Amino acid sequence: MNAFAALADDTRREIVRLVAKNGELTSTEISQNFRMSPPAISQHLKVLKEAKVLSMKKEAQKRIYKLNDSGIEEMEDWLRDIRDLWAKRLDKLEKYVLKIKKEKSRDKK
């Protein structure tokens, strides 16, 4: 599953917000913020980890989650590409509209 599909779920987006806000959180700390079972939260964490949105490290019995910089950068790059494409399209549209306005003003004279 890609990062955007993983983030389509409200619970997973909220998990990412929590982790981003706190830097690092254990799976227990994360699950304490939700009204669902720890195994359900674990499934959400698994999806986020597989989508490279979160990374996990083990310390003894704890699983500690943090944002995965490379996964976040991949999403940012994609969004930047889309924004650039639209900016170019809008620039072309603006030039076309200006051209039409000039032609109309010449026709009135």
Automatic annotation (TrEMBL):
Superkingdom of the source species: Bacteria
Ranges of residues in domain HTH arsR-type: 1-87
Pfam families, A to Z: HTH_5
Transmembrane segments annotated in the record for this chain: none
Protein name: Winged helix-turn-helix transcriptional regulator
Organism: Leptospira ainlahdjerensis
Species lineage: Bacteria, Pseudomonadati, Spirochaetota, Spirochaetia, Leptospirales
